Amino acid sequence: MATAIDTSVLIEAEHGGSLDDLTNLGEGPFYVPPHAAAEFLMGVLLVKNPHTASKARRFYEDEIRPLIDVFGEVEAERLASLNVALRQAGQSMGFYDATIAATVLARQHTLMTADDDFDRVPGLDLVKI
């Protein structure tokens, strides 16, 4: 079974300089949902220190970009049903987390994360770091 890598893991890996140590914790192949990549890039764009931003951008180009997968119709349908289920339960989830969760659910994969927000998504197989 493949494992998707959440933004929280990407951030941890960037601080450590490589995804290698973290991907040893899960079962591959590994991929990055496009919305996790977008969330990471948003953080890069918000960094005020030019050296830190440049380092994070290089990490994105070298480590993250090659692992980005697609978000298609099946994932979009799962996103809609997840948001409806959350709304009916009186809950909500941020856009990025919801799209990441929907991608993983639609594919019946595992999500590697350090984010507790995913704990409340029924049926989501998690590997916590």
What is the count of β-strands? 4
The CATH fourth-level homologous superfamily of the domain at 3-70 and 108-128? 5'-nuclease
- Number of helix segments? 6
What low-confidence regions span 5 or more consecutive residues with pLDDT below 50?
Answer: none
Strand order of the largest sheet: 2-1-3-4
| Large-scale geometry | globular
Q: Helicity range of the residues?
A: 55-70%
Instruction: Return the average pLDDT rounded to an integer.
Output: 93
The main sheet comes to: 4 strands, parallel
Distance between the termini: 18 Å
List SSEs in N-to-C order.
EHHEHHHHEE
The value of Rg in angstroms is 14 Å
The CATH C-level class name of the domain at 3-70 and 108-128:
Alpha Beta
- Beta-strand level of the residues, as a percent range? 5-15%
Helix/strand/pairing category: alpha/beta
CATH domain fold name of the domain at 3-70 and 108-128: Rossmann fold
CATH architecture of the domain at 3-70 and 108-128: 3-Layer(aba) Sandwich
What does this structure look like?
There is one protein chain. Helices cover 55% and strands 10% of the residues. It has 129 residues and is of the alpha/beta class. It has a domain at 3-70 and 108-128: Rossmann fold (3-Layer(aba) Sandwich), CATH 3.40.50. α3 runs antiparallel to α4, α3 packs antiparallel against α6 (95-107) and α5 (73-88) packs across α6.
Supply the key terms.
129 residues; alpha/beta; Rossmann fold; four-stranded parallel β-sheet; 6 helices; globular
